[in-house]
Amino acid sequence: MNKLICLMAGVCLCLVGVAHAATEDPMRSPGWRIIEQRFFADQTVVFDDRVQVLAPQSAEDTFAVPGFVRVDGIEDIERLVVITDLNPIQRVLEMDINDAVKPAVGFRFKVQQRTPVRAAVQTSDGTWYLGGTWVDAAGGGCTAPSTASADPDWANRLGEVDAALWARDDGIQRLKTRLVHPMDTGLVDNIPAFYLETLELLDEKGDVLTSLSIQAAMSENPVLSFDLAVDGPVRLQGRDNQGNRIRGMVEP
Amino acid sequence: MIRLLLLGFLLLPASVQGYSLSPQQIAPGVYMFEGATEHFTRDNKGDIANTGFIVGEDGVLVFDTGPSRNYGQSMRLAIATVTDKPVVAVYVSHHHPDHFLGNQAFGDVPIHALEHTIETIRRDGDAVTDSLYRLVGTPMAGTEPVEPGELVTLGRQTVAGRDIELIAAGGHGGDGHADLMLLDHASGVLFAGDLVFHERAPTTPNAELGQWHDALDRIEELDFRVLVPGHGPPARGPEPVQQTRDYLRWLEEHLHEAAAAGLDAAEVMYLDLPDRFQHMGVLEQEYRRSVAHLYPDIERATLRDVREP
Question: Which residue of A109, A190, A208, B198 has the fewest C-beta atoms within 10 A of its own C-beta?
Fold first, then answer.
């Protein structure tokens, strides 16, 4: 009986393998198979030019490469994930998308070597739509210490939240924020992982607009941009992996 | 092993000649080697900056040494086709690798530079050399950073019988006296280093824009007849100074406007650039690098502290 289950499992794995082999990565990344298995196993993946990642072709500062995801013309998006195939920490962020929060996000990330940076958005039917671009880099972004780890004063500034809101002509409210945190990866000798793990945006009434899960692949003192379909003040609250909380309230 | 040795012998002269530098005379006794108005590539061998030399009564003065040991050696061979006088002094304009990594080829000559340049090469020399190896590859073979050994004496002076003036300014290489210029009074040739770009978008990794503008104003007041920019073709007037100033002014204003509109850095990198700069080499590439260098501080000023207890 056990043997039979093993055999069936083996057959299933083979089938899954075959199905995956059909998903040809247009970016021809050597890391795609691993990314596919880790983040999209058994799910429908479509490569779609409507999912765009803006990022420089070459990283000027491997500790803080700017990236911006924008999606045009895909409806019913519920999740947005940013992934760097060839970084030791592959997922940069993951967030909820809904009527109040557009599928757009600006961020800064670390790169260890030349890598694709991809955005994946999942619609309500479960399908993932992926787009991305390559970023070239000399490396070191993930395995070099943060500036904060050498700054005796960093603890006093931990948890600082700077932000502003812009009301745009298209009715969208842009939120930009900078959060003071070392975002240590844990990949540097004798510096443990220490990074912001969660961030929530809430409206005036305290209702959650979106929740983000963040990884240490995000740059030190992360800068994030969001496009909100709601007016009014926004509260930011988050927590790092040691339980420290951050809180801020930004008025239009 | 023998094959390796043979390979070494075969490659050595070829790689030195790989640069095939030919001196361009820009005034009596004054020559330059004009680099490509590009970014570092394997094809251009890193030869993207201008270097030059002045033939004096009893020796040759060299301004900047290029991106690699091979380039520096090629310079010496090319200088020898013009004069048999010895090179007696080398001046390094600033610490960027395309301007000083040929120093090795001038190990027998005093190399002069500003304190900022010497200290920055001491600190960052290995890192910038590594990154050039990565971008340029084989033509870098054997190149190591050599720190200039002499603190430059500023002001008007006679060197090798030439009436020259060494002028310190800043803004491109960094804060304070980070950029050295050389004015040859007899010919009126000004080697301006990277304070002036021409037909090639300026680079800003260490830029202090206010100081850079001050330096450009000062250059226009100098009594020069031929201007050798750090990158791009030489000119017989101040046009490259105006071009550099126009671009830097635009860049700063443009980035402030983008920050005031709440744009994210990656969005700013992909904005359309004005037509009047489209003729500049590597415009998009340098513009995007400049966003990475300058935008973080500019956008920070648009955010306010919203922390709650």
Answer: A190
Alpha helix (H) residue ranges in B44-201: 69-80, 97-100, 115-136
Q: Check CB contact under 8 Å for B305 and A138.
A: no
Q: What is the ipTM of this complex?
A: 0.88
Q: Strand, coil or helix: what is A37?
A: helix
Residue B250: what pLDDT? Answer: 98
Domains and CATH numbers, chain A: 30-250 (2.60.40.2470)
Helices (H), A76-180: 154-157
- Reading the block at residue B278, the tokens are 């489209």
Residues 207-236 of A with CB under 8 A from B: 223, 225, 236
CB atoms within 10 A of CB A214: 25
Mapped onto helix, strand or coil, the DSSP state of residue A166 is strand
Residue A111 touches partner B, C-beta closer than 8 Å:
no
8 A C-beta contact, residue B233 and residue B34: yes
Asked if residue A227 lies in contact with residue A100, where contact means CB atoms within 8 angstroms, the answer is: no
Mean pLDDT of B232-245: 97
Q: Which tens digit of pLDDT belongs to each residue from A15-62?
A: 444 444 457 899 999 999 999 999 999 999 999 999 999 999 999 889
pLDDT digits (tens, 9 = 90+) for B178-200: 999 999 999 999 999 999 999 99
Q: Residue ranges of the domains in chain B?
A: 17-238
The four Cα atoms A199, A200, A201, A202 give a dihedral, to 10 degrees, of -150
Chain A residue with the nearest C-alpha to that of B135: A138
Q: Inter-chain contact A54–B266, Cβ cutoff 8 Å? A: yes
The CATH fold assigned to B17-238 is: Metallo-beta-lactamase; Chain A (3.60.15)
Give me the residues of A, 77-106, that contact B with CB < 8 A. Answer: 106
The 10s digit of each residue's pLDDT in B290-307 is: 999 999 999 999 999 999
Q: Is A55 on the interface with B (CB under 8 A)?
A: yes
Predicted confidence (pLDDT) at residue B3 exceeds the cutoff of 70 = no
Q: Are A223 and A136 in contact (CB under 8 A)?
A: no
Q: Give yes or no for B3 touching A (CB within 8 A).
A: no
